Every structure is written in C-alpha cells, then in structure tokens.
Amino acid sequence: MGIFSRRPSTVVEPTPTGRSGAHGAEAETTGAALDPALRSLTGHWTIDRPHSRIGFSVRHAMVTTVRGAFTDYDSALYFDGARPSESRAELVIKVASVDTGVEQRDGHLVGRDFFDARRYPEMVFRSTSTVHEGGESFRMTGDLTIRDVTRSVDLQLDYLGSVMDPFGFERAGFDGTTTIDRTEWGLVYNQRLEAGGAMVSEKVRLQFDISAIRSAS
Fold it and tell me: What is the mean pLDDT of residues 37-54?
C-alpha cells in the first residue's frame, strides 16, 4: 500500500448553520489579514481516514496518560479561504470503533459505563461558527453530541499547508484540539483511588489530526 490512499472516505453533506450574521462579521474582522493563498482552498473537503486521526487522551490513575482514537467516521468539511465565517464542518463518529490498543478497555468504553454504544451508536460534531484568529489559526465553535447530550465546544484549528499528492488528490492539513469535561455529557463513571484522586480524569483532550481531500462536489 502506498503512502497515500487512492480512495477518500465517505462524505456526508455539511448542515448549514444559519448563524453567519453577527459571527460572520466578527470572523472577517478578527485577527491578522488572511493569506491570499488560502483563497484557492475554498471548497468542499472530506477527511482521508487512513492518513488522519480522530483521537483523545485522558489521565489514568493520576500518573499516566491513556490515548485512543476512533477509526470509523463520516465527514464533511467546507472551507472558505476568503470568508472564514462561512467555513463549516460535520463529523459523525461511530463510537464502537474506539481503539486504545487494549481490547478489554475498549469493551468497557463502549459499554454502559461510558459510551453505551448500543443505545447511542454515534457521536456528532457540527460547527456553528468559525473565526480567523490570525495567521493560519482559526477557532471553530460547534455542537458536540454524546449520548444524546449536546453542548457547545471551542476547537482550536491550525492550517498546516496543502499539496497535490502523487495520485492526483489535492490535500490540506489541519490540527485541531480542545479539552472537555466528560461529565457534562453524562460520562460520569469513575473509581476513587485509595490515596485520593480518581482512576480516570474528568478532563479529556480531543485531538484532530486531519488530512483532508478536496471533494468533487
């Protein structure tokens, strides 16, 4: 298998937010001037799963960090290099695809103590606004739904560059991060340590390492 995938991942149509008004005005006036090269990236994109990672990390037993990722998801991205406020994203993640490298731990995560994948098979992120913060940094705000609980999160998003790969796909790279309190989505399971503290931290860092491919649409 080559370095680059010959087949992009499944595409879902992004849902228009309908909130461009005030947020749009803010986005066009926030931060430094946009790089003119970003204008050429305007259009629809989809995440290439073999070369991307939708991951998370959480402190375990107060002293170590457990890392994992979701391997099955559908995506739709629209990037507007001239008007960042018009950019939007939608990500639908199959929670049963969680992979931490330990089968027993993965089974616990998809069970009723955490994601309860049988009742709530999907986790969804839909953007509601995008703001250019200067240079190649953006802030994307969106609704994150886990176990039918929806709360707003702010995603720090950095543009890494673009390239035409050997198979004729135009690619763009982005890094995104945010930290959430899992208990706000009903993920409250824990065990107390004898010496004090919790077995699993309530704070979870979400990480989006994205290689996006321009869509035909």
Answer: 94
